[in-house]
Amino acid sequence: MTSEVLTLGLAGAKGNIVTAECIVTGSFPGFEIIGLPDAAVKESRDRIRATVKSLGLYIPDVKVTINLAPAGQKKEGAVYDLPMLIALLSQLEKIKAPDKKTAFIGELSLSGELRPVRGVLSMALAAKAAGIKTLFVPKENAKEASLAGEELTVYGAKSARDVTMHLNGDCKLRREAYKAPEREKIKGGPDFSDVRGQENVKRALEIAAAGGHNILMIGPPGSGKSMLASRIPSILPDMTMEEALESTEIHSVSGLVSGDNPLLTSRPFRSPHHSTSAVSLSGGGSSLRPGEISLAHNGVLFLDELPEFHRDVLEVLRQPMETGEVTISRVAGTAVYPARFMLVCAMNPCKCGWYGYEGEAHVCTCTQTSVDKYMGKISGPLLDRIDIQINVESVTFEDMSRKGEVAESSETIRKRVNRAREKAVRRGVTSNAALSPRKLHELANLSPEAEALLKAAFDSMGLTGRSYDKILKVALTIADMAESDVILPEHIAEAIQYRSLDRKV
After folding, report:
1. Chain centroid to CA 372: how far?
2. How many degrees, rounded to 5, is the angle at CA 119 between CA 118 and CA 123?
């Protein structure tokens, strides 16, 4: 008769139930693990043997076979060490068999200590959804697992000995108490009050944050593009609990959460270098890990020096920007990760940085051909997906030398952003940028004058259908910020001004 112990694995960003089945036979001695295990899982037998010895027990000269079911699903990592150990000890009648509503997760050291594993929140949520009542995890993962909710009893153990003693009733582990997480208050950090001048750009960034719109800043070196981008997290709206759990799941799968404060309560801000690869951006590799666009889920993906990124890397963005998710297909399998992010880009107008911004101090040295080639690194379809395109002028001496004036703080701006986002939530979406074309046209209430202005712009600027929708979404956000139920001509006019590259066509 076999012993069966429940455990969990990962499929993309989600957890899935796995059963560790163990049988001991009197045939030729051996230890075999089956069920499509990878190298790390196969090596578990040596960690299990060493742990059994550290417990003062021994494995008799028998054939041990452990099957990880379902057999057709590939098993990766050392997360199955603890459940396979429990299944073996239960089969050998060294411990009391756990009930059918208990699951185990954890990597073993050679001394029997339990080491933390990645993706525990995803697995804990899957355990709760499957009706599992009790979950044993390494001590360092206990707080993270408890985020699944108080319906799931979580025990954090330092070693395999702690788990076996608990199961035998010799020494009970303390349950990890569920505590409803609180939003961390942002203290210090970059603030918009630090920015001198650039009021038009700050206005555009506020609209982008309020509507979740993608934005591209174009300007000469030193105009403050990167400085402005780094302050965007300080004005982003508060995360809901659902968003916080989604983002934490992805970061947990990547091993990027803290054991003491595992929940992400501030929106992610990812800024990959322009030398990054397409795989690093989209995700993948041998273990199908999430990439930068998924780590930026519910937050910001900032691409500085946009034309310096390889063309194939930028093209990876097109599908996730439309669908809000990325599908990774490799030989190892297929994984789907969420990827709803606000894309923020910054770039110079040319290689030297001064095309269109020449003055006494700076002269552009680029030829028209090199300027066209530089701008041509960004494809039209990608630009079409960027809602707001704005020029960033060089700051003046008067802006920098002004004393006594304090610009608006990020906290003041964020309050307005939150009010605008509340209107989007009442429409059934997290932001106006997430509105489907059908929903957008149902909700966009244009005045006759605004509709006439938009028609004139469509004809004169040669806009695409996607550009039309982008202008309409931005105008809707501007109307929300003005607390207007009708999109007026001034809202359309401002939205059109944020299509600087379209106006140059």
Report:
1. 34
2. 135
Tell me how far apart the alpha carbons of residues 179 and 190 are, in angstroms, rounded to a whole number: 30
State the Cα–Cα distance between residues 426 and 367, nearest whole angstrom.
Answer: 51
Residue 50 CA to residue 440 CA, distance in Å, equals 62
- pLDDT number for residue 380: 84
Measure the CA–CA gap between 293 and 337, rounded to whole angstroms: 9
pTM > 0.85: yes
**Cβ atoms of residues 241 and 201 within 8 Å:** no
Res 503: pLDDT = 47
Measuring CA to CA, which residue among 140, 89, 81 is closest to residue 111?
A: 81
Buried/exposed code over 387-413 (b: 16+ C-beta within 10 A; e: otherwise): bbbbbbebbeeebeeeeeeebbebeeb
Sign of the dihedral defined by the CA atoms of residues 425, 428, 431, 432, in that order: negative
Once rounded to an integer, what is the mean pLDDT over residues 121-141?
Answer: 95
B/e letters for 473-494, b = 16+ CB within 10 Å, e = fewer, are: bbbbbbbbbeeeeebbbbbbeb
How confident is the model over 19-70, as pLDDT tens digits? 999 999 987 889 999 999 999 999 999 999 999 999 999 888 899 999 999 9
Integer Cα distance of 391 and 42 in angstroms = 57
Q: Is the model's pLDDT at 180 over the cut of 70?
A: no
Neighbouring residues of 256: CB distance < 8 A, sequence distance ≥ 6: 295
Q: Which two tokens stand for residue 364?
A: 């552009």
Domain 192-429 has CATH 3.40.50.300: yes
Average pLDDT over residues 143-162: 94
**Amino acid residing at 37:** P
Q: Which two tokens stand for residue 3?
A: 């012993």
Q: Where are the domains of the chain?
A: 3-168, 192-429, 435-505
CA 235, CA 413: separation in Å to the nearest integer? Answer: 6
Hey, what CATH topology would domain 435-505 get?
Helicase, Ruva Protein; domain 3 (1.10.8)
Using alpha carbons only, what angle is made at residue 123 by residues 152 and 265, rounded to the nearest 5 degrees? 80
Q: Evaluate whether the domain defined by 3-168 bears CATH number 3.30.230.10.
A: yes
* Residue listed under structure tokens 């429990």: 86
Structure tokens at 343: 């894309």
Measured between alpha carbons, how far is 313 from 307 in angstroms, rounded to an integer?
11
Spatial neighbors of 463 by CB under 8 A, at least 6 apart, are 457, 471, 499, 502
Please report, for residues 287, 335, 336, 356, the alpha-carbon distance to residue 328 in angstroms, rounded to integers and kept in the order given. Answer: 11, 5, 6, 41
